[in-house]
Amino acid sequence: MGAMRTRVLVHATLIGTLVALALVPPAEAQRGPGRGRNRAPEQAPPEAPAPGEYALDGSLAIEAVNRGEGRQALAYYERTATQAEEQGNQVRAARAWHAAAVVAVRLGRYQKGIQSASRAIELFKKANANELTQGDLGAWASSYSHLGAAYRSVRDFPQATRALEEGLEFAKTRLRGRQEGQVEGFLLNNLAQVAYAQQDFKTALARNTQAAQYFEGPAARLGPQASERLRSNMRRWAASSFLGIGRAQLALGHPDEADAAFDRGLKYARLSGFREVEADLLAGQGSLALSRQDWSKALGIYQQSIALSDQMRRISDHPYLYHGLARSLAGLGRTDEAFAAAREAVRYVEELRADLGDSALRSGFFEGKQGIYHYAVNLALQAQLPEEAFSLAERSRSRTFLDLLGSQTTLSKGRTRTLVDEEVRLRARLAEAKAEAQGGGASS
Q1: Predicted local distance difference test score (pLDDT) of residue 390
Q2: Are 314 and 276 in contact (CB under 8 A)?
Q3: Distance between CA atoms of residues 275 and 226, nearest Å
Q4: Helix extents (H) in 24-57
Q5: Per-residue pLDDT averaged across 99-121, rounded?
Q6: DSSP states of 204-241 as a string?
Q7: Is the pLDDT of residue 145 over 50?
């Protein structure tokens, strides 16, 4: 009888405990209407895609680019997004357009990147909030990041800044905890790149330094339960921060600090497994070696970076990489090889430009590449190839003129004066070279 009474008491106690637990609100709810409430549900890990398909996930889209499958992935994402829209599935379409933007920007398809990221943002805004997961909110924020990156690449800095600042506002109002910090960090890295492109190197350094704080410490403190994908992403973002720090320090005349930042970033890049950041950091080290006139070291680094980019079939940085290669070879006195590399840099500029159907985008993109043409012209003159020099100069001039006509852009006085002065100098050298060539032909 006593044993039975004991069992009844234990059973009643257990029931009471379970009822009490059921009545206690979850931890997020106990925090009140603060940062953890109304949190979107976690997104399940993406399922392995069937052959010929790609997961609608930003990190996995980057992995496809790293494998050299960027073009196939972009075509798949565009097709999937279009089909999803036709079927009325806004969330799936938004995910696909975001993935398309991730790939397009890395392939140097900037107009497609702008279109894809803009459409992803539009569809995420229209979607039912209850259908969006935490992963979707991250993709939404990433779409702002890639929209800003694409606009920066075509030198539309006001649009780039607007997109990135909208992304920061989105992060502050819609994201919580670690995800908010991650998004703010990679958007700050992008804003730093805009400042760098505008030659505001101090602002670039400050923003990259701030971004690094979101990633380096937290990456080291990730517990054993953290997924490998999260670790890789944190390391990738940290590497990008140190890449920006190194570039800004070099531009500010601090080569030793730049060297330390590039080295630190390269370690994170290699730990992350994302080769695109490794290639970019190698290019940074190449620029540093050029600044120190260590031509042999620069040559080896640029060759390594080009090889990595070729493996990924990513040509977005090839104009700068081959330009750096040309400068390295010229420093070693290998003028003919230097000119061949400079000509490759020009070829990639024109390949990337040809993909831009919008004349305003073409004009902005080409404006930042004039130095590549001018250097190639000078190398052609050094190599005693006046006809090649003249051809390159005319190509540069005609493309600038056509793009400006198409966009109806009004040049500032400063920009006009710079272009005119540079053209006058080049034409004077070309005229001298042509006269020398004709004189030599008459005497022989």
Answers
A1: 87
A2: yes
A3: 22
A4: 27-30
A5: 98
A6: HHHHHHHHHHHHHHHHHT--TTS-HHHHHHHHHHHHHH
A7: yes
Task: Please name the helix (run of DSSP H) or strand (run of DSSP E) that holds residue 18, with its range, or none.
Answer: helix 2-23
pLDDT tier for residue 27 given thresholds of 50, 70 and 90: very low
Six token digits for residue 136:
């979707």
Q: What whole-number distance in Å separates Cα of residue 280 and Cα of residue 204?
A: 17
What are residue 244's phi and psi, to 5 degrees?
A: -65, -40
> What is the pLDDT, as a whole number, of residue 424?
52
Q: Give pLDDT tens digits for 225-245.
A: 888 888 999 999 999 999 999
The 10s digit of each residue's pLDDT in 170-201 is: 999 999 888 898 999 999 999 999 999 999 99
Neighbours of 386 (CB within 10 A): 20
pTM: 0.80
Paired tokens of 121: 């943002």
Token output for 130: 């209850």
Q: Closest Cα to residue 258, out of 205, 189, 308?
A: 205
Distance CA 437, CA 298 (A): 33
Residue labelled with tokens 């190197």: 201
Report how far residue 92's alpha carbon sits from residue 153's, in angstroms, rounded to the nearest whole number: 27
Cβ(342)–Cβ(376) below 8 Å:
yes
pLDDT tens figures, 392-401: 888 777 655 4
44 Cβ contact list (under 8 Å, min separation 6): none
- Cα separation, 9 vs 293, in Å, equals 85
SS3 380: helix
Q: Are 240 and 218 in contact (CB under 8 A)?
A: no
Rg of the Cα trace of the chain? 27
